[in-house]
Amino acid sequence: MDLRDLAGEALAGLLARPVRAALTTLGTVLGITTLVVTLGVAATAGNQIVGRFDELVATAITVEVPESENAPLVEWTAIDRLTRLRGVESAAAVSESDDADNLYVRSNDIVDPTRVTTQTLTVLAATTGLPEAARGRIVQGRFYDDGHIRRRDRVAVIGDQAAKMLGITRLDRAPAIFIGEHAYTVIGILGDLRRERNLSTAVIVPPTVGRRFGLRDVTRVLVNTGLGATGLIARQAPDALSPANADMLQVIAPPGPTRARDQAQEDVNALFLILGLVSLIVGAVGIANVTLVTVMERVAEIGLRRSLGAARRHIAAQFLLESTLIGLTGGAIGASLGVVTIVAVSAAKQWTPLLDVRLAIAAPVAGAVVGLLAGLYPALRAAGMEPVDALR
Amino acid sequence: MAEPVIELRGIDKDFPSQPPVRALDDVSLRVDRGEHVAIVGPSGSGKSTLLNVLGLLDRPSAGTYRLDGVETTKLTDGARTRLRGGRIGFVFQSFHLLSHRSVVENVMLAEVYGRHPRRGRRERALAALERVGLAHRTGFPPDRLSGGERQRAAIARALMGGPSLLLCDEPTGNLDSRNTEAVLDLFDELRAQGLTIVVITHEQEVSERAGRRVRITDGVLAEA
User: Fold this and answer.
1) Distance, in angstroms, between A373 CA and closest chain B CA?
2) Average pLDDT over chain A, rounded to whole?
3) Residue A82 to residue B10: CA distance in whole angstroms
4) What is the pLDDT of residues A12-37, one digit of tens each?
5) What number of C-beta contacts closer than 8 Å exist between A and B?
6) A9 in contact with chain B, both atoms CB, cutoff 8 A
7) A388 contacts in B (CB within 8 Å)?
8) Which of A1, A301, A304 to mutate to test the interface with B (most CBs of B within 10 A)?
9) Burial class (CB in 10 A: 0-12, 13-18, 19+), B11
10) Rounded to the nearest 10 degrees, how much is the dihedral formed by the CA atoms of A300, A301, A306, A307?
11) Which ipTM was obtained for this model?
């Protein structure tokens, strides 16, 4: 039997009952659409989530330095070794302590009954890279530099909220604040913080000045890395900061972007994949059912074909091909609907649609396989009929 | 002497039941080329069983059946199917035309199985339709034809591929007398062209037109 004849007979068999064929296709269409949409939207959404992570969290590393009885674990100068690492964009060492968390700070000695002039603010010491490391900006004035640190100048930079609380609006007259009994010149206001937002209510002093408040050792190092460098820097940072005691430093790094993507996909996928598979199975059962009914209706036709010289395998091949064509059609329609849906969802959410081309090709094939499997039993039933019985 | 088209010798056919039913009992029959044989008998006499055996649709329990000199009872299913497709043309009481195909497509169906070239198939089908006098109805769907025209289309289909034997099962059972006459005239023409025809019928008119009549009663065949 010529393959073209087989294809022609199968196609004619389907087209003889077009409405039935179309309805039978529906199950596969639903199943394949669900699968394609699930995989496509998950991939698209996963990409978007990672994109958001990338901006802030995925590049931020914090190194916690535990307290030490003897020599400090991390020297203040170690920060220079860290910033030299490739992939580090900015870094700052910070010293905080419970004692310096709540210090009385006031902007002048005048007692003004109309307002609270004494505030309880956090005082911390930091290296010069703090504004960049905290992803903030100096709104007024300047940050202190190495000169200030070396000379132990009594200068301070305050957060923008702290400045408001203390009533400091301008720096051109070099206002002073009192921390405890001593006065410090405010040389800059730090604001627009996107990391370590609590710095906006803090008073930041050079490390050489911080000793007066018990801020002697580095307790934390803030690092910002380039995209994708967090893993590398997280491994290298302890060695750079404290070659002798690298093990004692605790690195807090965000989960890698790949893991974030996997996680997001897994969450979305699991449920909908099951849904898609279930609809596919329902579709397969539908095809099997309808094909079986069709076989029973076409008993006379089967008998006629056997009398015309059709072998059992010819009969089986025709019904298998018919159910496979139904599955293939369903898969192709489903894949198209799925792709359209993904693009529509992406357009609505202003995402970049992301779809594996292999998925769009594999979907119709999957539909055909479903049809083939569903047609197995009916085809065998048709082929197993005795021509004598079929012609009765 | 020329090889007979059909040569049955000592054919038995038993159906397994309690007690076993013997549908054909030591049936022997010889049909030569160009003969027109009618097999008559009441219902339940074994007519259909004999037709199934003759059409290679069923295997006898015992005996030998030579079709065109080929011993068929020992052949595999596949070989019997090929022989059936190539040597026998079936004509059924209920026509068995596919309703969603045109007349010519129904006739072309006869060459779908087996080794027939695709080239020229339509022309051969048109020629077969011409032969049965249906050249003016080739593009019609079968349900637009009269009963006689349908049976003639079915005969055209059976003639495709040049069979040795035209095997007809109650070919006029669904036809009125005028259409029956037309089909019987066609049989006469075909026999005149040298075709071997075996007709199973219980209609007097049909059996009378055949050159030879055999009667089957309770599975036993006798010349009538």
Assistant:
1) 25
2) 87
3) 105
4) 999 999 999 999 999 899 989 988 88
5) 68
6) yes
7) 52, 57-58
8) A304
9) buried
10) 70
11) 0.94
Q: Do B57 and A307 touch (CB under 8 A)?
A: yes
Chain B nearest C-alpha distance from A13 (Å) = 9
Sequence spans of domains, chain B: 6-223
Judge whether A50 and A263 are in contact, CB under 8 Å. Answer: no
Phi then psi for A141, rounded to 5 degrees?
A: 75, -135
Which one is the CATH code of B6-223: 3.80.30.20, 2.60.40.1840, 3.40.50.300, 3.100.10.20? 3.40.50.300
Domain boundaries, chain A: 3-53+258-391, 66-248
- Dihedral of CA atoms B187, B10, B49, B67 in degrees, nearest 10, equals -50
**Measured in whole angstroms, how far is the alpha carbon of residue A290 from the centre of its chain?**
44
Q: Chain A contacts of B110, Cβ < 8 Å? A: 308
Q: What is the pLDDT at residue A384?
A: 93
CB contact under 8 Å between B113 and A307, yes or no, is no
pLDDT in tens, B147-159: 999 999 999 999 9
Tally of CB atoms within 10 A around B148: 20
Query: Quick check: B112 and A1 CB within 8 A?
Result: yes
Does B1 score more than 60 pLDDT? no
A298 part of contact set with chain B, CB < 8 Å: no
